Fold this sequence. Notes:
Chain A is an alpha+beta fold. Helices cover 30% and strands 29% of the residues of chain A.
Amino acid sequence: MRQSQLFARTRWEDPTEETAKNAKLLIRAGLVHKEMAGVYAFLPLGLRVLRKIETVIREEMNAIGGQEVLMTTLQNPEIWHKTGRFDDAVVDNWFKTKLVSGGELGIANTHEEPITAMLVHHLKSYKDLPVYVYQFQTKFRNELRAKSGIMRGREFLMKDLYSFSRTEVEFHTFYEQCAAAYLRIFARVGLGDHTFRTLAAGGSFTTGLTDEFQTLSEAGEDIIYIDRSKHLAVNKEVLTDENLARLGLERANLEEAKSIEVGNIFPLGHRYSDALGLKYRDESGLDQPIYMGSYGIGLSRLLGTIVEVLADDGGIVWPASVAPFAVHLVALGSSEPVRQAADQIYADLSQAGVEALFDDRDLPAGEKLGDADLLGMPLRVIVSEKTLAAGKLEVKNRQTAEIRHLTFAELITEFK
Amino acid sequence: MRQSQLFARTRWEDPTEETAKNAKLLIRAGLVHKEMAGVYAFLPLGLRVLRKIETVIREEMNAIGGQEVLMTTLQNPEIWHKTGRFDDAVVDNWFKTKLVSGGELGIANTHEEPITAMLVHHLKSYKDLPVYVYQFQTKFRNELRAKSGIMRGREFLMKDLYSFSRTEVEFHTFYEQCAAAYLRIFARVGLGDHTFRTLAAGGSFTTGLTDEFQTLSEAGEDIIYIDRSKHLAVNKEVLTDENLARLGLERANLEEAKSIEVGNIFPLGHRYSDALGLKYRDESGLDQPIYMGSYGIGLSRLLGTIVEVLADDGGIVWPASVAPFAVHLVALGSSEPVRQAADQIYADLSQAGVEALFDDRDLPAGEKLGDADLLGMPLRVIVSEKTLAAGKLEVKNRQTAEIRHLTFAELITEFK
């Protein structure tokens, strides 16, 4: 994409009313727009990152047998009354609205109830199970305060998967498969080293223990205790000798850290299936309860976490897997030879299937280089009088700051 | 995909409480789930169609210079007060909600205001224009009644593009480019012959005339007058001699028809840019107003229209461009040779990059063939004792019912 065509501009001043690093950088880079506190729109480059994260998650969810659906935002109170969760005293962060034809509706806070109720029409026999259903859908949470940028939104995109199993044993097999898929996802989006499977309390969804995935960050709201060598952690709220023994961890090897919860997986047992009448007929013709689990990753929070954790003083640092573009091609100087050479390289990159953002704007070099750092593409490729004279491109790695001088053919081999 | 793994089942009884053909068929085929009146969830095969329609539209919007964003569902009343449109007396089908921290919010009814307000931060100079911004985002309309299945939802997915031009002339150039793109979109999703560019009244968005795109269907809520040879139409509400003359049409050549509005394009003039303070600085340093237009296609309505218009007595008929799968591979009989041959053909189709739904279920032949008709993939490929003996596959075209006997190699050439 030609940067001269991109409507979203960068800015150098921090936005007012933002305290979170992720929101400051994403707004300054022109990747998101703040609609109001906790509510952010995605501009073209930000949306590209969001879609790439979505693709990584979709691939991993499909690989473990997930079937994708798209549930609705407007929620029918009838099915929520069956679990008692329409009550504001039970779920305290609902947004609700009213039908002009009469009656109150919920605005999707989560989707256990509608997915379970929908499956009543489709699951009958033991032969139909297990089933894993997931979606990418916006959630709405009526937070009293929203102050962590896009990491704790009132409106945010989430991947939520629900598992429906015949038995607790069958459920646990999938639970572990999903935990492994989650670790692959966090590794693929560049947070593998920073993210720990973490034993935690189940919160309002379950009474037992659950697993969270926590990414180390000073911006986090959680306190966890990590064992770096075993790459495991325990949330402070469940740090007991019994739980440490369960994980084979010892207090002496633990390190306290602040962290961001980027994913969670919950056993739900029979709570929702019982309440909504979802059961299956077993081999002997008897009705049996269905054992459920839920598995969530907030995509906009994950995007914000990548920014929080990997950014440096110059700006955002995108891992190649989710960067808006693989290459930021920057033409310095407006001489005709530079312009022509840059145009040609841009065309050749497209031809080679390499996604490039081409800074073809007529701006001072300092401004363009500053923007390249702020926007954070993995490779910055400079075309200038100097590089033309040398017959090589200047290629800078955004993360390591390493500079190399490569021919176009050498550059292209990096993407093979 | 193996049909034995697909959780969504077909059913033979029409759903109760549905009068619209599109909803009856989509629910019977297991493509959508009715959450409540006018609110439908998409199940795996339905979501595949929705995403394919989205891809077609995205390609055409990118081709005319559109930049994709994702605005928000929660709407800040402040910016809507500037145009007066937060008032229920002005826009009568808002859903609204309340922040727990105080204050009312809108639930996205449309997005002129937020997109215009967002661009105030990004557009400054004549050099920044024209700009075309679009999104795929859910809209919410508080309809008193919802009775046309997924064609008039209380919640529905829409592509909305907004154009920002320096002058009315610049706007009109893009307006015609977008009209041409719309005709390509409707042709690509299989509705080209049935869909007419139609002169219409502007409704609440504008005082002048606008263009609608109307697809002929008895299920439609509009009455239009079409000239088949010129492939143009006039909405009944603006059928005047003056307007006919403007289009070069004559009353004698017109035919009355019922139709579904599948797209619309509106001149917005300076209404929103003036109200929200969006202007640009021209070459001489003077502030100038920005001329806007809006361009909408409802994706879920378009999906419903394809079903309404192309379905036959046997069920849905998908055009290849948006079908959930290109091929429905059906194994008849459960003998080991049939099973093995079908498995091999399924693997070979995947290998060749052909998307196939593989009916590997242990069900009577009649039920599987009925499901294949109901689900409506473009090609049904049968593997049975009979086809194995003949050494050829039985390939049926869902639309024409033509049956051919092809080798696998011959089948594959259809997709080259």
